Amino acid sequence: MSGVENTRKTPRQPRAKHSVDVVLEAAAQLLEATGEAGFNTNAVAERAGVSIGTLYRYFPDKASILRALAQRETEAHRSAVMAVLDGGSPGVARDRAIIRAFVQAFAGRTKARRIAVSAMLAHADHGELAARFTAVEHGMHDAEGRPLTKVQAFVLGRAVQGAMRAAVLEGADFLESQEFEDELVRLGRAYLGYSVGKRGG
């Protein structure tokens, strides 16, 4: 199943999109508050203030809600990364800004994030997911100004992504810490051949 096949009916009208957004926000709140134990379609509908019929119009089951929630946050993260690549990180190094966008995803809802991402990855097309972030790897250069080869860009990208994903899925208590951000930055810069003696830059 495709990682983007999340809803029964694709919302097109503003009102419909609003209903979906309300349901997904309620789902995130419920997951963060109760975990998987209290997560079901009836509880989501009640928290969202919509009828169960309205919820089922867009989401056939609770798994589809989880996947849609993860997709929404993944797209928000991708948009934040693209903004950085377009020059939208004043005062912050580009590599750090990209990593920070990931660390700060899901608005700090780490429990909801772990559950939703796990659900998405169980059914995702991983090639499709990776393709959303190819712009980050494209045009990367090492400390000597040499463009990275396709293999080098793959290794660096998956090394950083792997550490970040593991922190999410394992529920690491340091996911949002400055130290974790610093170490991811150091990892990337060391691979590219930059000096990594100083943290926090």
Q: Beta fraction of the residues?
A: under 5%
Predict the CATH topology: Tetracycline Repressor, domain 2
Q: What is the element string, with H for helices and E for strands?
A: HHHHHHHHHH
CATH top level assignment = Mainly Alpha
State Rg.
Answer: 19 Å
Label the overall shape. Answer: elongated
What is the correct CATH architecture? Orthogonal Bundle
The low-confidence parts are: 1-6
Mean pLDDT: 87
How many separate helices? 10
Distance between the termini: 41 Å
Topology, number of strands: 0
Largest sheet: none
What share of residues is helical?
A: 55-70%
Quaternary state of the chains: single chain
> SS-based structural class?
mainly alpha
Find the CATH superfamily.
Tetracycline Repressor, domain 2
> How many domains make up the coordinates?
1
Describe this structure as you would to a colleague.
The chain is mainly alpha-helical. It has a single domain, classed as Tetracycline Repressor, domain 2 (Orthogonal Bundle), CATH 1.10.357. It is built from 10 helices and no strands. It has helices at 14-34, 41-48, 52-58, 62-85, 94-103, 110-123, 126-131, 134-137, 150-169, 178-192. α1 packs across α4, α4 (62-85) packs across α6 (110-123) and α9 (150-169) runs antiparallel to α10. It is elongated, with a radius of gyration of 19 Å. The N and C termini lie far apart (41 Å). Residues 1-6 have low confidence and may be disordered.
Chain-wise SSE layout:
Elements: H1 14-34, H2 41-48, H3 52-58, H4 62-85, H5 94-103, H6 110-123, H7 126-131, H8 134-137, H9 150-169, H10 178-192
